[in-house]
Every structure is written in C-alpha cells, then in structure tokens.
Amino acid sequence: MRQDFKISYSRINSYLFCPYKYKLVYLDNIYVPVSVEITFGRIIHKTLEQFHSLKELNHDLLFECYDDSWRNDGFDNPQQIFEYYQRGKQMLENYYRSFKESNTEVLYVEKAFDTNIGKYKFMGIIDRIDRYPDGAYEIIDYKTHIRAWDPEKVNKDLQLSFYAYACKSIFGFGPKKMSVYFLSENKKVYAVKSLSEISNAINVAISTSENIVAENFDPDISKCQVCDLKFKCRFSVCRVKNLHRRN
Ligand code: SF4
C-alpha cells in the first residue's frame, strides 16, 4: 500500500459497496462511466461555489454563474441538455428564494479539508457551513437527486458524521445542525446524530482503512447487478451471463 494512502467518504462508500470495486477504481484506475446525474450535480455544485464566492449576491449573478458553469459534455442528446438545463434553472430559482429568506451567514463553500482519523489521513470537501445569528453552526451537504431521501436514510448515511468530526478537529467547533439539502425539492432533511453514532462512523472509517491497507479486496457479487463496473469486472455475475448469451 502506498505511503500517501488517504481515505475519504467516497472511498469508504466504494469499499463498503464492494471491496473489489475499491481496488478496481482506486488501485487499478479503471474508468467508471460518469452518469448524466453526476455531470448535472457537478454543474450545480460549481454554480453555487462560484455564486457564494462573489461579493454581491443577486439573482442575475446566480444565473450568470449557472451559464458559466454549464457544460454540454456528458449529456446524451440536445433534448436531454435542454431538460436538465431547465431543471437546473428551476432548482436555482427555488434555492435563491430560500437563500434570501434565510438568516444564516454562509461561512464556507466547497471547503476542502485534510485531517486524521486514527492513524489514517482523511480528506473531503464540505459543501457548505453556515453560522446562525446565535453563533451555532450547520453543515450542509447538497444533493441533486430527483427525490429527497427520508430522514432515516439521511441519518444512516456516514458522510455527515465524518464531516461533523472533521469540523470539530479542523475548525474547532462542532455543528449544532447537519442537513442534506435536496435541491430538486428545495428541501433540507436534518440528521440527528448522537456522539456515539459519530464515533461508530469513525470506527467504520478506521476498520475500512485497515482492510484496505491489508489488501482485503474480496468481491461482493451480491452487488453486481447495480454496479457500474459490471461489464468490466472479472468477478461480475453479469459479465458471465453476458458472455454466455453471446456464445
Ligand atoms: S461487478 Fe460485482 S464483484 Fe465486480 S466490482 Fe462490481 S459488485 Fe464487485
């Protein structure tokens, strides 16, 4: 294992999905096809990053940032480009309205961090950190899925626990609130995390890192059907079926 080994939320997620997928993506550098949803999500993240870096924040400037961040690459056809562009516009209209009504100060946007979890380096990017007038902080993660997750799924997700830990260890403050902001529905779903849940998430990060360092990359073939490497992986049950079908 390389000396500069670092863990992140996406790496942990990939390993927990299937250890062999982690190996293919992060060690063998096998290209993972980028979906249209991911392309669209990146455009929206970039738009909001650009917007919040401006001195003056108004409606027209938000849409200038959108046009500046927009790329046609990654979409399948002009109709799809048009539909996603319109969807993004609606999303940002709603976002802007809520932003103007909010009483928080946007402190950080797309804040990259590097910290340690146990003896392992941990890196990530927090989409947004806000400060309330009473001094409380909120960590916000943007998602551009069509449908918002239910609170149970938001609570189970490890990402906000990692970011709460990182916030405390790097900036010295723990967030009072943690939310996933589902931009398609302009809806924030709040996570309620106890200290022991955050500590459990940290233990998952440590045990995953230990497994990676020990090179435990057993394939989990129960996931092949929904894996985006199902036609590239030698253990994939879908690939085997596909070969049989061709013969
Ligand atoms: S195709 Fe199956 S075994 Fe291969 S990486 Fe994906 S989930 Fe793992």
Q: What's a concise summary of this model?
A:
This protein is of the alpha/beta class and 247 residues long.
Shape: globular
Total discrete domains: 1
- The parts where pLDDT drops under 50 for at least 5 residues are none
CATH architecture: Alpha-Beta Complex
Helix content: 40-55%
Structural class by SSE content: alpha/beta
Which class in CATH terms? Answer: Alpha Beta
From the N-terminal CA to the C-terminal CA, the straight-line distance is 39 Å
- Tell me the number of strands: 6
- Which compounds are bound in this model? iron/sulfur cluster
* CATH fold topology: Lambda Exonuclease, Chain A
Number of helices: 9
Task: Tell me about the largest β-sheet.
Answer: 6 strands, mixed
Averaged pLDDT: 92
The rounded Rg comes to 20 Å
* Helix-strand string: EHHHHHEEEHHEEHH
Which oligomerization state do the chains in this entry correspond to? single chain
Percent of residues in beta strands: 15-25%
